[in-house]
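User: Design a sequence. Structure:
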């Protein structure tokens, strides 16, 4: 279940609960007594409710989309929909709410069994392509000199292994060549072999290529400049000396990076770092190649954490044939965890109310809400750690209807009501206000009340349901009163249990 589906589901239960706490009283009292305008139908009447001749007792007529509206006869609802009968054998009991198969089919109620299956947790992260620092080489000179020619002039140019990179003039190396060449011309003596060997080694230590030394051995002339070649294939990432510049021993003339292999460095949220380890499988996709996901493994987890973003870095090494992956490219990284067994349901079966998670299950032919403890969500499946049993049947769509029915039956309210530590009901909330209007038949009262600190409400005017019509007996519009009610669950309208004159004790 994606984030949007959860929000819709949560909105469904919130709306149902609100209607159960408020609109239910209007529907169950005002409309039940009078019937729908224009309602028509024929058949016997039982308890003032028109029957449909099916042999099953009809308790009331209602619109499944507005289950809080109840009517005594068939007809149209306030939304213009045809009313349907609610039979006595479908009425909610203490163990759940029953919904006819026809209504389930019309509203697309779907169910799924709770199963035990492997959950493979995945961590998503954003990564970036970077140079494999193990494949960076510096093209240097081993003796001081001057760059006379440079074959590469711009960063980003490709350079093949063995290609001439620069020609360098080194007075010291030029003099050493002349010395070696002179020793080669001296006739044999007891000391000349040792001197020649020492002079030859000096040329190698000063960086003269082996080919140039063999040329001197064959009688060639000393070269004023010597060539510097690329030790491997790569891309020029930096130029350290331009033509005419003096270079010192160890100074880089150019820097090359071999991009046949690159790193993808991913930023992982701090909370997920404990789930990662070297060797985990990773799937990587790039916006430039959406149909070409690549597989890799974590080969290093960096020991530091970004103190501002609160993310850690992990590294994946990827082959880069053809140089498709450019340095700086962004990547979508999905890191797979180790599979673990768990009870799972489709994620859309979980209704989040903000403070708790609920799954509506079907047991013994009735639907009932069950508070659950959820674990990990992987893809479209959610782990259930507590609340459900193997092979329970969970509702995965159409929860709005069932949740509304359950709210009317008081099942959802019982989930939200919690006794205090002594086992008694929580104390009533008391407030003050002025009665603006009242409806004894509809069991509602409109109050302009002061701020209610227990609920964090500011002063306002609003309509409340009352527990019983007797609560309004003797009260009149314009009267200043004190009223009290039990603190409602989140999303429910308070039901007033007592209204007395402000001066009453």
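Assistant: Done.
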């Amino acid at each position: 279940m994606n984030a949007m589906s959860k929000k819709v589901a949560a909105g469904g239960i919130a709306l149902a609960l609100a209607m159960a706490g408020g609109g239910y009283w209007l529907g169950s009292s005002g409309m039940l007594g009078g019937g729908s305008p224009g309602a028509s139908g024929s058949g016997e009447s039982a308890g003032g409710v028109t029957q449909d001749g099916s042999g099953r007792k009809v308790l009331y007529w209602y619109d499944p989309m507005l289950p809080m509206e109840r009517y005594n006869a068939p007809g149209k609802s306030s939304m213009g929909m045809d009313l349907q009968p609610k039979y006595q054998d479908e009425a909610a009991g203490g163990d759940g709410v029953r919904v006819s198969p026809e209504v389930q089919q019309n509203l697309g109620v779907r169910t799924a069994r709770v199963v035990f299956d492997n959950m493979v947790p995945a961590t998503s992260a954003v990564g970036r392509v970077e140079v494999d620092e193990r494949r960076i080489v510096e093209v240097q000179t081993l003796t001081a000199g001057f760059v006379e020619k440079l074959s590469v002039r711009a960063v980003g140019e490709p350079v093949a292994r063995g290609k001439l990179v620069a020609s360098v003039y080194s007075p010291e190396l030029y003099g050493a060549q002349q010395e070696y060449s002179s020793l080669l011309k001296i006739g044999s003596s007891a000391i000349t072999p040792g001197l020649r060997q020492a002079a030859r080694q000096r040329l190698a230590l000063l960086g003269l290529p082996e080919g140039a030394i063999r040329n001197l051995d064959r009688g060639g002339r000393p070269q004023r400049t010597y060539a510097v070649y690329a030790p491997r294939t790569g891309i020029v990432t930096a130029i350290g000396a331009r033509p005419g510049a003096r270079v010192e021993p160890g100074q880089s003339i150019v820097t090359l990076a071999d991009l046949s292999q690159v790193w993808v460095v991913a930023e992982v949220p701090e909370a997920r770092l404990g789930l990662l380890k070297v060797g985990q499988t990773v799937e990587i996709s790039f916006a430039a190649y959406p149909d070409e996901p690549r597989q890799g493994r974590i080969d290093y987890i960096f020991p530091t954490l970004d103190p501002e973003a609160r993310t850690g870095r992990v590294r994946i090494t990827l082959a880069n044939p053809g140089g498709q992956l450019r340095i700086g490219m962004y990547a979508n990284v999905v890191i797979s965890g180790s599979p673990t067994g768990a009870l799972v349901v489709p994620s859309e079966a979980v209704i989040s109310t903000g403070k708790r998670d609920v799954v509506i299950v079907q047991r013994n032919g009735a639907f009932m809400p069950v508070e659950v403890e959820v674990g990990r969500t992987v893809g479209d499946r959610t782990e259930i750690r507590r609340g459900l049993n193997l092979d329970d049947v969970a509702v995965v769509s159409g929860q709005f209807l069932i949740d509304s029915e359950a709210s009317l039956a008081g099942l959802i309210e019982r989930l939200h009501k919690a006794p205090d530590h002594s086992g008694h009901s929580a104390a009533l909330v008391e407030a003050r206000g002025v009665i603006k209007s009242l409806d004894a038949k509809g069991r509602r009262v409109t109050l302009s009340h002061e701020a209610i600190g227990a609920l964090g409400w500011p002063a306002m005017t609003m309509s409340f349901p009352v527990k019983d019509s007797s609560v309004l007996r003797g009260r009149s519009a314009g009267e200043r009163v004190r009223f009290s009610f039990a603190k409602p669950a989140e999303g429910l309208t308070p039901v007033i249990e007592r209204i007395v004159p402000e001066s009453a004790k």
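The longest strand covers residues 289-306. Confidence is low (pLDDT under 50) at residues 1-42, 415-425.
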